[in-house]
Amino acid sequence: MTSGIEPAGAGLTLSPGRRSAIRRRITTWAPRARRGHSLPWRSSNDPWHVFVSEIMLQQTGAARVAQRFDDMIAQFPTPGACAAAGQAAVVRAWVGLGYVRRAVALHNSAEIIVTRHAGAVPRSFDALVALPGVGPYTARAVLAFAHGVDVAAVDINVVRVLTRAVTGRTLVPNELQILADGLIPPGQAGPWNQALFDLGATVCTASAPDCPHCPLATLCAWRRAGSDAPDPHRKPAVQKRFEGSDRQGRGRLVAAAARGAIVSGRLASVMGWPDDARRARRVAADLVAEGVLCRDAVGAYHLA
User: Fold this and answer.
1) DSSP 302
2) Are the beta carbons of 186 and 20 closer than 8 angstroms?
3) Which long-range contacts (CB under 8 A, 24 or more apart) does 222-231 make?
4) Spatial distance between the Cα atoms of 53 and 142, rounded to a whole number of angstroms
5) pLDDT tens digits, one per residue of 75-133
6) CA distance 208 to 101
7) What number of other Cβ atoms are within 10 A of residue 237's Cβ?
8) Is 6 one of the catalytic residues?
9) pTM of the prediction?
10) Model confidence at 11, in pLDDT bands (50, 70, 90)?
11) Radius of gyration of the chain from Cα atoms?
């Protein structure tokens, strides 16, 4: 199988013995983690199901996606069904899942998959990253989970595990990818990536790591450095305030448009800014420019 990704190396300076020990500890621990039982997309390796889940998970928490995933697949079970449903139907189904541009990207990707890839989710990195809304991380996740390619999907949970337990130092993105790719047991990219996700999400957490229950505790480079050693995991940037933000207003407007047309005079109140009509018009214009909304002959806003 040709993925379009060149082998990244054997994992920085890890010795074969240390790499083997890490693999053994995590693969022994993973079946007991049981996080996957609450994540419905893990029960399928259908490439389209994997693709939809990865788009949904880009900027929405797993618990929230878990509540909506089955309904999304029921409505759009294949790329062809998604493309034929139309953008408005996908946006309407997306309401409440965050950035609506991801719904637009999902529909546009479905159309491209149908017209350029005979209805099959691409099996190469280059073809995947050419799809709307798909970056290197999402492409690698689809390759690993849907197509069994031995590549690592490095999310923030995996970064914590690698920098704390494996190396004990902060790593730049290229180092992280090389290290993660080199740790994958051959032929086990799917379950291995899921195990690292689970370890970072449930044990090696950002603020209160549960070191006594970590399968890598006795191998952990950060723990061996002593209790005074600085955390090598870079703290993520503080998320911008949501309450009162343009993002909140966008979500409110799209949710309202999913229920029916919005006349221009109601924009500001619908978006929660009754005294800022100029801001409301600006944000609405952005959504029109992005192809999420359109205006009819009398100036009312609809889903595109």
Assistant:
1) E
2) no
3) 222/163, 222/164, 222/165, 222/168, 223/165, 224/168, 225/168, 229/168, 231/164
4) 10
5) 999 999 999 999 999 999 999 898 899 999 999 999 999 999 999 999 999 999 999 99
6) 34
7) 6
8) no
9) 0.81
10) very low
11) 22
Unique residue bearing structure tokens 């370890």: 199
Q: Is-contact 74 98, C-beta < 8 A? A: no
| Runs of H (alpha helix) within the chain | 16-33, 47-57, 62-75, 79-85, 87-94, 101-116, 125-129, 136-147, 156-160, 173-183, 189-202, 221-224, 246-259, 267-270, 277-289
Tokens 């503080």 identify what position? 238
Which residue of the set 54, 111, 175, 290 is catalytic? Answer: 54
Measured distance CA(98)–CA(5) in Å, rounded: 31
Domain topology for 32-147: Endonuclease III; domain 1 (1.10.340)
Q: Which residue, 65, 53, 55, is CA-closest to 102? A: 55
Return the higher-pLDDT residue of 274 and 215.
215
Residue indicated by tokens 């890890």: 14
Residue pair 30/198 in contact by the 8 Å Cβ criterion: yes
